Structure formats: C-alpha cells, structure tokens
Amino acid sequence: MTRTVWSVNDWDPLEEVILGSAAGLTPPPVDVSLRHFFEPPADAKDERIDAGTLQRVVDETEEDFALLTETLTSAGVRVRRPDATAVGRRYATPEWESVAMHALMPRDCLLVIGDRIIEAPMPMRARYFETAPFRRLLREYFDAGASWFSAPKPLLPDETYVYEPGASVVAEHEPLFDAANMLRCGTDIFFNVSNTGNRRGAAWLRRQLGSDFRVHEISICSDHVGTTLHILRPGLLLANSERLTADQIPAPLRSWKTIWVDTPENDGYAFDWPRASVWVGMNILALGPDTVVVPANQTRVIKQLENAGITAVPTSFRHGRTFGGGLHCCSLDVRRRGELETYL
Fold first, then answer.
1. 206, 216, 310, 315: which is deepest, by most CB within 10 A?
2. Among positive and negative, which fits the CA dihedral 112, 313, 185, 123?
3. Annotated catalytic residue: which of 216, 224, 230, 328?
4. What is the pLDDT of residue 168?
5. Catalytic residue among 109, 185, 221, 329
6. What pTM was computed for the model?
C-alpha cells in the first residue's frame, strides 16, 4: 500500500512536496510578537513598502517557484501548492489583533513525522492562521489515510514574550513551537528551545508521538534550526560556522562528520530591513542523501557541498532575506521513500 504521507528525516529520496505561495504576501504590524521573532530595527514601524515593490517581490518569488517546480518535477517529485492568502486579511482575539502574513513557509507551520501532519502552535500572532491556505491539502491527505493533528491553539498574551540577558524566549504558559524548530533524524527528534519554541511545546510533542520517538531538547540558535544545522544524511552534518562550535553540536550527533559552512553570499533584500540573515543561504532542500537543491548564487555553499561528494542543484531564489525564509522553509516534504530507523 502506497503511503500518502510519510517522512521521518530530511534526506530519504523525496517523492512529494508542498511548495509555499507568495500570493497575498502582507507585511504585518510591528507588534510585540513580531519584534520578539525578527528583532527588527527600532524604527521598523516607520517602514513603508510601496505597492510596486511588494508586487515585484511576489512576482519574482513566484517566478522562482515556477523554476523550482520544474526542477523538482524533472527529478520525479510531485509538487503541491496551497491556496492563496487574501491580501491584508485581518483577524482578532479578545487579547490582540493582527494581519495574516503569507502562505510562503509550510515548513514553519506544519510538521510531518511519519504519517502524521501536525499544525504547529506558532508564537507569532501574524502567523496564527497560517495553516488555513493549506487546509485543502490537509483534508486530502487525511481522506487518504494520514493522521492530522493540531496542537492546542495558544492565547499569546503579551507576557508570552520574554527577554533574558543575551536571548529572547517564549514563556511556559502554554505549548508553543514552530515546526521549523525540529531537526528530524528517524526515531530521534531534536527540538530547539528558543524564541519560537518552549519546553512545554517539547513536552506536548513528546506525549503526542509516544514511545516510537525520542524528543531531545536543544538550544543551538535563537529560532529555527534550518540556518544553523542540517543533517545531510546519517554521519554527515552541515553547520553554521559563525553560530556553532564543535562542542555545541547536539551531543548524540557530535561524532558525525561536519561540513562547516563559510559565510554565505548576501542576497540582499527589497524592503527597508531584512527578515533573515545571510545564513538563509544554507537553508537547503534535499532530493536524496546525495543531492540537494541550493540557491544558485550561493557559490561557496555549493562548492563546499560538492567537495564533500554532495550534488548541488542550483535554483533561482532571490528574496529569502526579504521575506525571511529559505528553500527549506518554503517547502514541506510530505512523502519520502524510506522507513523509520534509529541512527543514534
């Protein structure tokens, strides 16, 4: 029987992927939750993005996604797309109000583990309903036999956002995490406790998954792990040379070979301030254990991968720093060919 949804790592051969959409991209208000996540400049509220610039970013991103779709399809991967987000869609709770940001990054709002798809309890208010454009696909996967869960919907009061010396974190009032906080390695899942995930979130995930999986709490970066550490395949890591040292690699992975990424190329950004650092350039998508898709202008990253025997497939990706996400963020592997294994 063919499994509609199955993925337990980031390197088994890719068969089906959800690719996000830039349609409806709307910069949200600079509230306490956005400041906590993006750490924007003090004058961020004064940013004025003209309609022409915003439309250019949307159009160029969709052009890049069309090329990426061709690349993936030619590799035998089925590509699915969400519904468009309505421009400027507002919503409110008794505590706060915000604007839906986009449907660009299924990796952030949806977590696939085995045959489960989990809607993440995201801490940023502008991302509260980010799974809505993906609901058509979620219904389809559910009807085909996948398990579909949603973590408890958080309240996100102002007290959620805590600033500690040298770091910002989210309070432990309720389970919180972005799905991109996870590093999946078969039966072992590494959960990054940070400003986008708390220990209560790790506890909720641990209980949800049960005894088949081990959820390890780590703290290797301020938010998502995809610009800090990747598992390319068992025994081989790709790591951020500015954020990590060898003794900061999670202990169970420390004996594996590590490719230490040199500072990536600066892609630039179209808005007043960037929503991601240059390290979004190492945010890659694996087609299999020996082949990864990489932004075409990341020549140093490509060279380092190829020197390690990894085939790097270049693709146009112009606005990762503009909207705050890379190739890994903007895609979600729904099905990979392989079985659940223990590698550690």
1. 310
2. negative
3. 224
4. 83
5. 329
6. 0.96
